[in-house]
UniProtKB/TrEMBL annotation:
Organism: Acidovorax soli
GO cellular component terms, semicolon-separated: cytosol
Key words, A-Z: DNA-binding, Transcription, Transcription regulation
Protein origin, superkingdom: Bacteria
Name assigned to this protein: DNA-binding transcriptional LysR family regulator
Ranges for domain HTH lysR-type: 1-58
Cross-referenced InterPro entries: HTH-type_LysR_regulators, LysR_HTH_N, LysR_subst-bd, WH-like_DNA-bd_sf, WH_DNA-bd_sf
Any one Pfam family match given in the protein's UniProt record, by short name: HTH_1
Record family assignment: Belongs to the LysR transcriptional regulatory family.
GO molecular function: DNA binding; DNA-binding transcription factor activity
Amino acid sequence: MKFHQLRCFLAVAQHRSIRAAARALPLSQPAVTKSLRELEHDLGVPLVVRGVAGVQLTEFGEAFRLRASLLMQESSRAREELALIRDGVGATLSVAVGSTVALTLLPRVLAAFKQAYPRAQVNLWEDVQPSSLDRLRDGTLDLVVMQGTTQPLDPDMESQPLYTLDSVVGARAQHPLVRSRSLRSLLDAEWLLPSSGHDVHSPSEHVFTAHGLPVPKRITSCYSLTLALALIKEMDYLSVFAASLARTEFGRHGLKALPLRELLPASTVSVIRRRGSQATIAAQAFVDMLERMGKQAH
């Protein structure tokens, strides 16, 4: 199994055409076909079939596609890491970050990372599930930084807790319950929360269960912080936010933190990796900076 064979196979899998794959690489069509045949011979199984609708992956091809992508990504990372050690250049970091971390700690962490690795190529995504884990799975991403979890991780993923965030209940300044001091008085209100959809409560729902209270029944599920801030600014919704986010964002959105007597459960910021994968020097440095600064700030 050789690098150019994997490259040809992945191009064909992406374009579903020998001609289009050859044009994208760029190689001749016979060269692409030869590489595919050599790879199939090495593996002992057919990877593609040709038809009137173009090239389709076989069952073996579909299963091999993810592995081939990972092999290519890991090969690229290995080359970059060796170049980083030898010349101090070539580092690449690809990470998906949740909105709360992006709006609070990420600018400081990224500034420190760029100072340590000034010539590094940084690729940032907003963490959107499940596409972030799919990108992590196929090797596009090095890391996913997530606040809390709304569902169990798949067996091929592993989580490392980094730091915790205090929580507050937020509402617009004109909300009739904005001066409430107890969670119980808020149970019949309209809430905007990322409901888990599982038997295990989401971190936001745990705010209530931790105090022996039922989860409110009037919940609108929302999985976007941008949407949540926009809606709560204009409507009588309540929601749960990180206290650090409240300090930086509530003022300019016209929101207030409710003066509740109860101490709300903290949420955990974690980094998600492929289980058993070896972090690159750059990725580990980013995680270390995020953990250190997160603990210092909270």
